[in-house]
Amino acid sequence: MTRDEQLCLQSEFAASGELFEIQKALIPLIVFYPECPLGFLYSTMPRLTDGEHLEHLESFKTLVAGLYDKTSRNTMMVQATAVWLAFDSGALKVFEGLALASFPEIEKYPNTELSQKVAGSIRASVPMFFTEHHYPVTSNWPRYFWNRGFEIDQCYFQEIADE
After folding, report:
1. CA 92 distance to own-chain centroid
2. Distance from the CA of 107 to the CA of which of 7, 45, 91, 118 falls in 20 to 30 A?
């Protein structure tokens, strides 16, 4: 985004009354990852007390760890949000009769067979949003995110964590 586009988006969020809630939700991401591309939503970088820092870190670690299970409901809802945004923006269209055309059924995931089929279609669709057409391959954000994670705290591998 250009600086003008960032300012426009920030102004739209402020005018709608949603800016504060968005900022509040993003605090851990912005504090732990100062180079986050969404940092432009803040006029000054948020700061945490030591107690808040530890609390947010533990919460953030739990959230990220939970997203490793691609079949969990939380992970599926994150992926479904990305697909919904693609539908909403017109970047994604599907033919009638395909499982993904029953997208609203994802709300019932994993409790119905159709919701599981929709979930499979969502999982198959998400990688296309990370192609050069939708996402600049020159972006440093993914590499920065994972490398910064190693700086923030130790990495615990599943085999070690289970012992």
Report:
1. 18
2. 91
